[in-house]
Request: fold
Amino acid sequence: MGQILLDRNENQYGPAPTCYRALREANLLQMSMYSRDYLLARKSELSYRLSHQFGIPENRLLLSYGSEDMLKQTVHCYLKPGETMLSPRQSWWYYKSIAKEVGGKQVEYALHEKGHKFEYSIEEMLRLCDIHHPQLILIASPNNPTGNSIRKEDLIKLIEYCKSSVIVLDEAYFGFSNERRNDIKKLLESHGLLVILRTFSKYYALAGLRIGYACVGEDVTHLTTYSARYLGYNQLTEKIALAALDDEEYYHSITQKMCEDKESYYREFASLEGFTPFHSDANFILVRYPILQKQYLESELRRRNIVLKFLSDPGLEDCIRITVGTKEQNAFVISSMKEIVKLGVSIPSQPAFVKG
Ligand SMILES: Cc1ncc(COP(=O)(O)O)c(C=O)c1O
Reply:
């Protein structure tokens, strides 16, 4: 096995065979010509298909260069200098810098550890809304790196309470749990200022292709206009994304394997002294480890060509985020971890290892 890169939440199984076929059969004319989809009275084949899938008008389905791009566009459209954005304290690193890009103020709410899971505290979020009247509220569900989702009833409460805020629901990791909501249309009807972000990067294993999208409420008109691309989108990218949508069976079978492997991770890490795995609805898990072993763990993993994400965020300095890989990779990570921990215990002279 070569280097095992389990540090950036990429889907290690790779895209569906339909995507490779689409690439092989690509029409080269698509590279030299602009799209003529407008002749069919649609923005693009992909946004047309997705909008039908979700039951919303095509003008409220906005394609972007990954969901990162749409998140940026949303914040740049709606957050003015001095205005407040509410976002999770434990979150994807980009959330920490995006408000600054526009001179906005960032207020963070915490996610709380409850048993072997993290949770959103709707009470805390509503309290902060009362104090700060945020222009924009950012929620990730599932959240990176904690892996938990927001409960549907809490999301509804927030929507009902914050009628004048733009609410961004980042669902980059949608699809990896057995519970799959399909209520985009209803959610958008309940809040005209809702922006739901999705991507082809994670579930569909197309991170390098850079394609994501937003489904937006009817009052998100500024963003709808701002994000319009009058000359169309990248046609090759679209073709491959459409091919991915054609092979739901492939992606479903991957998710099943990942769900099984997440269970193995929970079980195995729970049996290692000093380690606590947190349950996750995403394609990664968060694991707390005895912080005094950090150097030792890092170097032993490196020796075995395993790359994991050692976090440094406040409150999570003693946690690693592990992307759930293929069956083979996951088995190797688990056996390596067990071996590393055992070795550390049995070598009293090992200076970096202190049993936690
Ligand atoms: C929570 C979250 N949202 C959005 C993204 C951006 O993904 P992409 O731009 O590839 O769609 C990431 C990337 O890791 C992420 O962790």
Summary: Residues 347-356 have pLDDT under 50 and may be disordered. The chain has two domains: 4-12+249-346, 17-246.
